[in-house]
Write a structure and sequence with these properties.
This protein has helices spanning 10-22, 33-42, 60-68, 87-95, 108-117; strands at 2-6, 26-30, 48-51, 77-82, 100-103. By secondary structure, the chain is of the alpha/beta class.
Length: 123
Protein backbone atom coordinates (compact mmCIF):
# COMPACT_ATOMS: atom_id res chain seq x y z
CA UNK A 1 0.00 0.00 0.00
CA UNK A 2 1.20 3.50 -0.82
CA UNK A 3 0.36 6.85 0.73
CA UNK A 4 1.14 10.42 -0.21
CA UNK A 5 1.49 12.92 2.64
CA UNK A 6 0.95 16.53 1.57
CA UNK A 7 1.78 18.99 4.36
CA UNK A 8 4.04 22.04 4.54
CA UNK A 9 5.24 20.99 8.01
CA UNK A 10 8.18 18.59 7.84
CA UNK A 11 7.44 17.54 11.44
CA UNK A 12 3.83 16.70 10.59
CA UNK A 13 4.90 14.72 7.51
CA UNK A 14 7.28 12.78 9.76
CA UNK A 15 4.60 12.07 12.40
CA UNK A 16 2.04 10.89 9.84
CA UNK A 17 4.74 8.99 7.97
CA UNK A 18 5.78 7.06 11.08
CA UNK A 19 2.15 6.06 11.73
CA UNK A 20 1.69 4.86 8.16
CA UNK A 21 5.05 3.07 7.93
CA UNK A 22 4.17 1.34 11.20
CA UNK A 23 1.14 -0.26 9.55
CA UNK A 24 2.97 -1.21 6.38
CA UNK A 25 2.59 1.74 4.01
CA UNK A 26 5.22 3.03 1.59
CA UNK A 27 5.37 6.81 1.84
CA UNK A 28 5.85 9.70 -0.59
CA UNK A 29 5.85 13.28 0.66
CA UNK A 30 5.10 16.75 -0.66
CA UNK A 31 5.40 20.18 0.97
CA UNK A 32 2.35 21.72 -0.74
CA UNK A 33 -0.45 20.88 -3.13
CA UNK A 34 1.57 21.70 -6.24
CA UNK A 35 4.32 19.27 -5.16
CA UNK A 36 1.62 16.75 -4.32
CA UNK A 37 0.30 16.89 -7.87
CA UNK A 38 3.86 16.42 -9.14
CA UNK A 39 4.23 13.29 -6.99
CA UNK A 40 0.98 11.92 -8.42
CA UNK A 41 2.18 12.64 -11.96
CA UNK A 42 5.50 10.89 -11.29
CA UNK A 43 3.77 7.81 -9.86
CA UNK A 44 3.28 5.22 -8.71
CA UNK A 45 -0.27 6.23 -7.77
CA UNK A 46 -0.94 5.92 -4.02
CA UNK A 47 -4.08 4.38 -2.56
CA UNK A 48 -4.50 7.38 -0.24
CA UNK A 49 -3.31 10.97 0.14
CA UNK A 50 -3.35 12.66 3.55
CA UNK A 51 -3.60 16.38 2.91
CA UNK A 52 -3.21 19.49 5.08
CA UNK A 53 -5.48 22.45 4.31
CA UNK A 54 -3.23 25.45 4.94
CA UNK A 55 -0.16 25.33 2.69
CA UNK A 56 1.67 27.80 0.44
CA UNK A 57 1.39 27.75 -3.38
CA UNK A 58 -1.59 25.37 -3.49
CA UNK A 59 -3.70 24.65 -0.42
CA UNK A 60 -5.33 21.35 0.45
CA UNK A 61 -8.77 22.19 -0.91
CA UNK A 62 -7.24 23.26 -4.24
CA UNK A 63 -5.29 19.99 -4.27
CA UNK A 64 -8.46 17.97 -3.63
CA UNK A 65 -10.27 19.79 -6.46
CA UNK A 66 -7.34 19.24 -8.85
CA UNK A 67 -7.08 15.52 -8.03
CA UNK A 68 -10.83 15.01 -8.40
CA UNK A 69 -10.81 16.77 -11.79
CA UNK A 70 -8.29 14.25 -13.19
CA UNK A 71 -9.79 10.84 -13.97
CA UNK A 72 -6.35 9.19 -13.74
CA UNK A 73 -6.53 9.66 -9.98
CA UNK A 74 -10.16 8.65 -9.43
CA UNK A 75 -9.10 5.69 -7.26
CA UNK A 76 -7.01 7.80 -4.85
CA UNK A 77 -8.77 8.26 -1.51
CA UNK A 78 -8.29 11.73 -0.03
CA UNK A 79 -8.09 12.38 3.71
CA UNK A 80 -7.86 15.96 4.95
CA UNK A 81 -5.66 16.17 8.07
CA UNK A 82 -5.91 19.74 9.30
CA UNK A 83 -6.41 22.24 12.11
CA UNK A 84 -9.45 23.59 10.25
CA UNK A 85 -12.34 22.69 12.55
CA UNK A 86 -15.13 24.90 11.21
CA UNK A 87 -18.09 22.81 10.03
CA UNK A 88 -18.34 24.79 6.79
CA UNK A 89 -14.73 24.01 5.92
CA UNK A 90 -15.27 20.32 6.61
CA UNK A 91 -18.42 20.29 4.48
CA UNK A 92 -16.62 22.10 1.66
CA UNK A 93 -13.75 19.59 1.66
CA UNK A 94 -16.13 16.62 1.59
CA UNK A 95 -18.31 18.27 -1.05
CA UNK A 96 -15.28 18.79 -3.31
CA UNK A 97 -14.10 15.21 -3.07
CA UNK A 98 -12.32 14.53 0.23
CA UNK A 99 -13.24 11.08 1.52
CA UNK A 100 -12.41 11.67 5.19
CA UNK A 101 -11.56 14.55 7.50
CA UNK A 102 -9.23 14.40 10.54
CA UNK A 103 -8.61 17.33 12.84
CA UNK A 104 -5.19 18.03 14.33
CA UNK A 105 -4.10 17.10 16.89
CA UNK A 106 -4.89 13.46 16.23
CA UNK A 107 -3.79 10.08 17.55
CA UNK A 108 -2.43 7.07 15.72
CA UNK A 109 -5.72 5.34 16.45
CA UNK A 110 -7.74 8.04 14.68
CA UNK A 111 -5.61 7.76 11.52
CA UNK A 112 -5.86 3.96 11.55
CA UNK A 113 -9.63 4.10 12.18
CA UNK A 114 -10.15 6.47 9.23
CA UNK A 115 -8.06 4.19 6.99
CA UNK A 116 -10.21 1.25 8.11
CA UNK A 117 -13.35 3.21 7.22
CA UNK A 118 -11.85 3.73 3.76
CA UNK A 119 -11.00 0.00 3.60
CA UNK A 120 -7.32 0.93 3.42
CA UNK A 121 -5.93 -0.45 6.67
CA UNK A 122 -3.57 -3.35 5.96
CA UNK A 123 -4.74 -6.60 7.51
Amino acid sequence: MRALIVDDSRAMRSIIGQILKGIGYEIAEAGNGREGLQRLEEGPTPQVALVDWNMPEMNGLEFVKAVRSDSRFASVRLMMVTTESEAGRMASALEHGADEYVMKPFTREVIVQKLEQLHLAPA
